[in-house]
Amino acid sequence: MEKPKYSLDFEKPIHDLEEQLANLRKSSAESDIDVESEIQGIIEKLEVTKKRVHSALTPWQKVQLARHPARPYALDYIAANFDDFQELHGDRSYRDDRAIVGGPAFFDGSPVMIIGQQKGRSTKENLARNFGCPNPEGYRKALRLMKMAVKFNMPIVCLIDTPGAYPGIGAEERHVAEAIAVNIREMSAMPVPIVAIVIGEGGSGGALGIAVADKVLVMQNAYYSVISPEGCAAILWKDRVHAPRAAEALKITAERLIELKVADEIIEEPLGGAHVDPGAAALNLREALKRNLDPLKKLSEQQLLDGRYAKFRTMGDFEEKVIQSQAAAS
After folding, report:
1. Co-location of 307 and 288 in the same domain
2. Same domain, residue pair 160 and 250
3. Which helix (H) or strand (E) holds 111?
4. Which of 89, 86, 68, 88 is nearest to 1 (CA)?
5. Domain CATH number, residue 218
6. Which residue range forms the structural domain that includes residue 43?
7. pTM of the entire predicted model
8. Residue 162 in 3-state DSSP?
9. Residue 208 and residue 253 share a domain
């Protein structure tokens, strides 16, 4: 994948320095003037600026990184980390939903069932993949593949990257909420290891429909939320302009997800985001997946189910204790 240009407002200082560096190198090559010291100075300043900008990102800025159009998508990670992936299509009831891809593959020499939410790069592909917003048949396809994984005793790996399930009339007519609810119920009782990884956007029930897992990992600049910041702002403040404020209130960043026990581990991204070095991001994801999947494969079915139940029962425990302590104090 070609390294993209920076396109986010808060990255403008980085983009300006990169342009200066490129122009200086071009001038040096054309005129044979030795400007190595100036080049080295800009390189050092560029590294300092990158660290300064990306070490103090706001939740809203991380949301923007999670949505970066050049960020690696599910199929990119599948190609980099899984062997012999065979994509399977259709829910056997209505049609194939290209917003969800899935099929068997090999990870580290062992078979797994990989399921991911997939966005498009071009306008044409985004229309074909519904901008990564699955319809009910997408969730039913995912469930079909999960049941196949259970039949053949294969671990399940889910790559989450969606702004949310598609809210259109057709999706509602075909019962998208019911499809997500069934997936949540069925995944909670599946006797095989399940690892879910939030690689970009993790929006609402659209993400949760394939995210009931023994381990939930989240990329450093990804987010996972009950609603998008824009949707939250439109409801609470009647104006989407308050999306940055909503992003802060929703506690959707990787660090906050760990604190709230919604996620289990943060997968580090290259400085600047996964889109800056997709190969390094894919390697980090591979290592994190192996680190979390291997211990799960050694557990019995009952241990898996008990651990999964306990994991989701623990979520919100901290907030509940705070409310209880406040009530006792009053």
Report:
1. yes
2. yes
3. strand 110-117
4. 68
5. 3.90.226.10
6. 9-56
7. 0.87
8. strand
9. yes
Q: One digit per residue, pLDDT tens: the chain, 330 residues?
A: 444 455 677 877 887 888 877 877 777 766 766 677 777 888 888 888 888 888 888 999 999 999 999 999 999 999 999 999 999 999 999 999 999 999 999 999 999 999 999 999 999 999 999 999 999 999 999 999 999 999 999 999 999 999 999 999 999 999 999 999 999 999 999 999 999 999 999 988 999 999 999 999 999 999 999 988 998 999 999 998 999 999 999 999 999 999 988 999 999 999 888 998 999 999 999 999 999 999 999 999 999 999 999 998 888 655 555 556 666 666
- Nearest Cα to Cα of residue 50 among 279, 288, 277, 281: 277
Question: If 0-12 CB within 10 Å is exposed, 13-18 middle and 19+ buried, where does residue 265 land?
Answer: middle
Q: How far apart are CA 213 and CA 217, in angstroms?
A: 10
Residue identified by tokens 């400007």 is 35
Place of tokens 């889910």: 158
Virtual torsion, Cα 89, 90, 96, 97, nearest 10 deg: -80
Q: What span, in angstroms and rounded, lies between the C-alpha atoms of 100 and 95?
A: 12
Same domain, 269 and 206: yes
Are 165 and 171 a contacting pair, CB within 8 Å? yes
Token pair, residue 131, equals 């901008």
- The residue type found at 330 is S
Q: Please measure the distance between the N-terminal and C-terminal CA atoms of the chain and give it in whole angstroms.
A: 58
Among candidates 101, 64, 112, 94, which has minimal Cα distance to 210?
Answer: 101
Count of structural domains within the chain: 2
22 and 87 assigned to the same domain = no
Structure tokens at 42: 């800009």
DSSP summary character for residue 9: G
Q: Look at residue 326 and tell me if it is in a domain.
A: no
